[in-house]
Write a structure and sequence with these properties.
This is Panthothenate synthetase. The chain is of the alpha+beta class and 108 residues long. 46% of the residues lie in helices and 28% in strands. The protein is elongated.
Length: 108
């Protein structure tokens, strides 16, 4: 299953790694191990942030994905399942079923 890993690197630990000349090298090393489909870097809430898209077959892989970011950069992470357009197309029948069952209900 495809997941989006959001990595937020605190300013202090990111600055310390940058000043030591290790920020890029550390990120490159983690990405080389994780072999993501794609990785994008930007800012989020004033922190260096990565949006990394990767495949996971089972939940037991979460520590191998999360721990390098925690240990090397004191990062916080979020991990979310995501879909590509083909996945969304396959979900069509489930969406239709939910619409038929729940869309006619009124919400208070």
């Amino acid at each position: 299953m495809r997941f989006m890993l959001k990595v937020n690197i605190p300013v202090e630990s990111g600055n310390a790694a940058a000043k030591a000349g290790k920020l890029g090298e550390t990120i490159e090393s983690i990405l080389a191990d994780q072999k993501p489909e794609a990785a994008y870097f930007t800012d989020n809430h004033g922190q260096r942030t990565g949006f990394i898209f990767l495949e996971m077959k089972e939940a037991s892989q979460i520590p191998a994905i999360a721990e390098p970011w925690f240990l090397a950069l004191d990062a916080s992470i979020e991990l979310h399942p995501v879909m590509i357009p083909d996945d969304l197309a396959k979900a069509g029948p489930a969406i239709d079923k939910a619409v038929k069952k729940y869309a006619s209900h009124t919400h208070a």
